[in-house]
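From the pipeline queue, job 12 of 40. The input is one protein chain; the requested action is below.

Action: predict structure.
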Amino acid sequence: MSAPKLNIDRSALEQLLLSRFFFAPSFGIYDGVKGLYDYGPTGTALQQNIINLWRQHFVVEEDMLEVDCSIITPSKVLETSGHVAKFADWMCRDTGNNEVRRADHLVEEVLAARLVSDELARKLAATSIDGQAPAKAAGKKNKKGPAPTKLEDAVANEYRGILAKIDNYDGDGLGELIVKHDIRNPETGNSVSPPVAFNLMFQTSIGPAGTSKGFLRPETAQGQFMNFARLLEFNNQKMPFASAMVGRSFRNEISPRSGLLRVREFTMAEIEHYVDPMNKDHSRFDEVADIKLPLLTGPMQLAEETVPAVMTIGDAVSQGVIDNKTLGYFMGRIYLFLTAIGIKTDLLRFRQHMSNEMAHYACDCWDAEIYTSYGWIECVGCADRSAYDLRVHSASTKKKLCVREHLAEPLVYEKLVCEPNNKLFGPKLKRAAKPVQEHLESLPVEELAEVKATLAKDGKATVTLTGTAVDGDYEITSDMLTIEYQTKIENTREYTPNVIEPSFGIGRILYALIEHSYSVRAEDEQRGVLSFNTQMSPFKCLILPISGNPSFKSFLQNTARSLRNVGVPARIDDAASVSIGRRYSRNDELGTPFAITFDFMTLKDNTVTLRERDSTKQVRGPLDDIIELVKNLVSGSATWDDALAKFELVDTTSEADAESATE
């Protein structure tokens, strides 16, 4: 797999997105707030089209249970889940102006810039420009900035190695890199402080008294876990099953930048697929087993490799590269979804989390990363979260979040059981008796066996309670309880499901799709085009008159109504003061795939032209037939090749000149 290539003028694209109001900074008339964006009509429609296909692809086709849960989340929930203690990034401060930067992004930005400078210096050294010595030419090449600097080969390789595993560094590791490589704020040249952890959640108070602390949710997952028991009951106790949710989440990013790629409020689409931990097969795995994915594994990253290995999902699971079939199945479905909306396959990869970035409870985790002008961007996470969330919430609330499965044959097994001597256990431990008993019963079998061995050897053992009303150390003696293996016979099996979680950042996917769809006309680089596929296009059809003649008005309105009534978003552009070519061009910038044009021939024989955005070819036919064609093109029951075969092709030589015209 070759290195990714995406040759776009980002500044020109950003100007297009702003001028056509795909999105813009929120509260702009007050100079805006970093990391907050408003979507305009076009961006809103595009986002909704992505969500609609997501719902069809996952919720409908996979028969998932969709929910909509509260944004405001009590502190206790997020304390239990670990977010209050661990949901943090590493930040550092500019020692001169106190500007805050995210440490890993700062290191990445500085080292990447040095490698770019090194590459340019090597190119200039290898060629002579205008007959001058390379060093002088390099100086002339960069009048507005420092001359390119060549790195020693060993240093350049070290930088590449660091960037290949940048996600694996913790705070101390990032601090060492900053010192060793003299990482400074590139905007000021100032040194930066050592990295410190910064919790990303927005805190709030619930109620007027201010005594109940809460947070704006950083993900939608916790709301789904809270409702697991209800969802299981709704699903008639059948396993496996999945819940799904689309909604807003909030993260107080340290230094939001890169447009929609790093924001403080964003839309997520998350799936929680509940599965038996003893059977992580998937009934539809064969449907994706032959799909080839570009996989950048953890060991490859640690070896400083950056080119993914391409292998089928079936091979990846059988060889243990992907942990299990259910995880592999969803990685395949994620790939199919992203390519269906228009993400380019050669700009998509799956990167496995390394040890430092993977949650301690996770069995395996992969990110679907999409290449953009900002580099590789994580857009979808797909993790096997094990049973962590349901277990910790069950332990905290004393509510069962588990599945009871009737067994065809009774299960006979030996279990280590703790049985208190009620005459001594309660009187000696008093208020701590129940918490100590619950603690012992919750211990893994290995730890309970250690307590048993200690009692047998010393006649006593110490139990330490934390997170209770009676925290502290308590001594138990061998006469207070027995810990012995007992034979158990069960007709039902009780287990806590594991969770496979695909998590989609809709805003990031939307922006990546825009970049992958953007191009300029070969004959005029000022004319941008967004070549969304028909399903994703915010508006499906442009309707416009050749001139401002009042005779066209009823045609425009009736045609728009006919299309809208069957669910085809149509937009009228009757600005007669603007040339027809310019109107085509500005709707190309909106990604509109088709355009129906009414001209003076329409008034004579009721025929119109239909233009296709990418080829700019036009066909002519009766109005009713063209309207029916547009419906079929949008639904996917017809193709543009079908239109070219059926209808008269229009000579657009003269119109090509018109399309070049400006207002």
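Job complete. The radius of gyration is 31 Å.
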